[in-house]
Design a protein that fits this description.
Helices cover 50% and strands 17% of the residues. The protein has 427 residues and is of the alpha/beta class. It has a domain of 168 residues: NAD(P)-binding Rossmann-like Domain (Rossmann fold). Strand 8 and strand 9 form a beta hairpin. 46% of the residues are buried.
């Protein structure tokens, strides 16, 4: 029977994950779920006790345990889900606010904010991978949601050399779900020419039951009669004949997104500050000892279909047959005009104990250019961490399309390093 360990088990996302585990426990042959967290506050206790009530009410046959002992949590684990947030929400708020001081996008997964998040994440990820190697099952898989997910996937697979690893995002599965609803079919009936990096991806072909329905998919996604010239992003997508990851708005309409961020911060706070209030409300809800299922209010937290993506991937790694997923893995030639070693967010065939990329030929030139640039940024950021090099960190920031220029890069980097001094040291 399988042991599944959730690092960051005290997250308010956990009831969503538990709901999926309960529904799929038999298919996974799940024997134990261990919620592991460093949080010794009441928050972890509240989340874990709700998870226990959910298990008991559903009559689930697996054992649920929770605690802060890393060895106990990882010992003989078959699957490790990473959903922790280095620096907690306070770190996210720093990632969102410091860049704004320099008139730059503040976002926790991309640009300057993603860089700051990586400074905190990489040392912690490195430790956990070592612990997995030391204590988990020898064939254990790590499935990652921790941000910045794409950069972490690149680090673990190509730098640390841990091959049984997949980075996950809920955007691909939500895209598939929306298309399935539009075409009145199952998600498994749809195949996408999907490629890029996490939160920076493109779709240029859509097949439904083996038939090319690309134009229909574009028309359903970006209805031309509803796309006035003022909606630059939607019109660009429609004219480019590609379905674009919504996070590409940061790259293609940077000034619009920056203005929206500034307005939001002034009127209702950054997204991190909003999430702080959502979490307080959720924890109050979770504290109700009569609650035994994930509450509807959890949808406000974001991460729609997060548990579905994770649990279906675990299920298909445990069972016979081959299923399609979209994950962050090494390219290995699947996208012909991108470096084979790049860790990309691409199509994969998943079978028992194995994830393999699916060949989709070439990326569009506009996508390739941005992928190459941001992948160089990722690798320089990783190099800055490994060498403790402030110069490499500065080079990384200067390369990123959403990063600073020479006028601000040194002051910005100093601010980021001071804010993250408990996690990293660069010189």
């Amino acid at each position: 029977m399988k042991k599944i360990t959730v690092i960051g088990g005290g997250s308010t996302y956990t009831p969503e994950l538990m709901d999926g585990l309960i529904k799929n426990a038999d298919a996974i042959d799940c024997g134990e779920v261990y919620l592991l967290d460093i949080d010794r506050t009441n928050k972890f206790k509240i989340v874990a006790e709700l998870a226990q009530r959910m298990v008991e009410h559903a009559g689930a046959k697996f054992l649920l345990r929770w605690g802060t002992d890393i060895k106990d949590g990882l010992q003989d684990a078959h699957f490790i889900l990473q959903q922790y947030r280095p620096g907690l929400l306070a770190g996210r708020i720093m990632d969102e606010t410091i860049p704004l001081k320099y008139n730059l996008i503040g976002q926790e997964t991309t640009g300057v904010g993603g860089f700051s998040c990586a400074l905190r994440a990489l040392p912690i990820v490195e430790q956990y991978v070592e612990f997995v190697r030391k204590w988990a099952n020898k064939d254990a898989f790590i499935i990652n949601f921790t941000n910045p997910s794409g950069l972490i996937s690149e680090f673990v697979i190509n730098t640390l050399g841990f091959e049984n690893f997949a980075g996950l995002c809920n955007i691909p599965i939500n895209t598939l779900q929306t298309l399935a609803e539009n075409f009145n079919c199952k998600r498994s009936d749809i195949f996408l020419h999907y490629y890029g990096l996490n939160h920076m991806s493109w779709i240029d072909r859509v097949y439904v039951k083996g038939i090319d329905r690309t134009q229909d998919a574009f028309n359903k996604t970006y209805k031309p009669e509803n796309v006035p010239d003022s909606e630059l992003f939607e019109r660009f997508a429609f004219e480019s004949a590609m379905i674009l990851n919504p996070y590409l708005r940061y790259y293609y309409t940077t000034q619009t997104m920056l203005a929206e961020e500034k307005e939001a911060k002034a009127t209702k706070g950054t997204r991190g500050e909003q999430v702080q209030q959502i979490e307080r409300d959720l924890l109050e809800k979770y504290s109700d000892v009569t609650l035994y299922e994930k509450p509807l209010e959890l949808e406000q937290r974001g991460g729609s279909m997060y548990s579905t993506a994770a649990i279906e991937l675990i299920r298909d790694l445990c069972t016979k047959g081959t299923k399609e997923h979209i994950v962050n893995i090494r390219n290995n030639g699947a996208v012909e005009n991108l470096d084979r070693s790049y860790v990309l967010e691409i199509n994969a065939r998943v079978s028992q104990g194995m994830i393999r990329p699916v060949c989709i030929q070439k990326a569009h030139p506009i996508a390739k250019g941005l992928i190459d640039t941001v992948k160089t940024f990722e690798r320089l950021t990783i190099e800055a961490h490994l060498k403790g090099s402030k110069k490499k960190a500065r080079d990384a920031l200067l390369i990123h399309p959403l990063g600073p220029r020479l006028e601000d890069v040194n002051a910005l980097l100093d601010d980021l390093l001071e804010a993250n001094q408990d996690y990293c040291r660069l010189s």
